[in-house]
Design a protein that fits this description.
This protein is an alpha+beta fold and 202 residues long. The protein has a single domain, classed as Roll (Pnp Oxidase, Chain A), CATH 2.30.110. The chain is 15% helix and 34% strand. It contains five helices and 13 strands. It has a seven-stranded antiparallel beta sheet, covered by helices on one side. β10 and β11 form a beta hairpin. The longest helix is centred in the first third of the chain and has 9 residues. The chain is globular.
Amino acid sequence: MTTKQRFRVDELEGVDAYKLATGLIVPRPIGWIGTLSADGVPNVAPYSFFNVVSGLPPTFVFSPGRGGRKDTLDNVRAVGEFTVNVVTAEVAEAMNASSASFPPDVDEFEACGLTAVPSRSVRPPMVGECKANFECVVTQIVDIGHPDHGNALVIGEAVEIHVLDSLLDGTRVDQVELRAIGRHVGNSYSHATDLFDLTRPP
């Protein structure tokens, strides 16, 4: 008979709970979030604490750390808008580069060799190299987790969607051609192209 180790979260030390959670909840979609500072400096950073949580209207959540080294949370609090740029195999290296720590006055699009394409309905730019982008407005920001080391849950609704023509059959997206990637643990990622079908029961 197989056995499982049992962990009480309040007895785990350091980042052990984080390591278990991020090692088991995989693959996670990556929200490559474009923002703009109050001073107008473009920022782009990836978050694997990210997902779509509603379809009408399309509503996204991502969860930056409070008091961390990224400027995204400050920017969405100040400007109230962001873009979601879909991460595919073609932009994986640039996405990874944008996870580095940059000073707040650095244009991260420029620093990572990315094209900052103006959005139509929000102020933060989109990543031009991405096959699909969402323009979003912030609807709510909720502080969660540990008071000193926790995160903020940013909730935003899409107001515009941009998708490469070659991916589309009407509004259905070709999953193989999209070539999305997912986040695992440490330096590990996966390709979302090993697909199988299950017929949904009635």
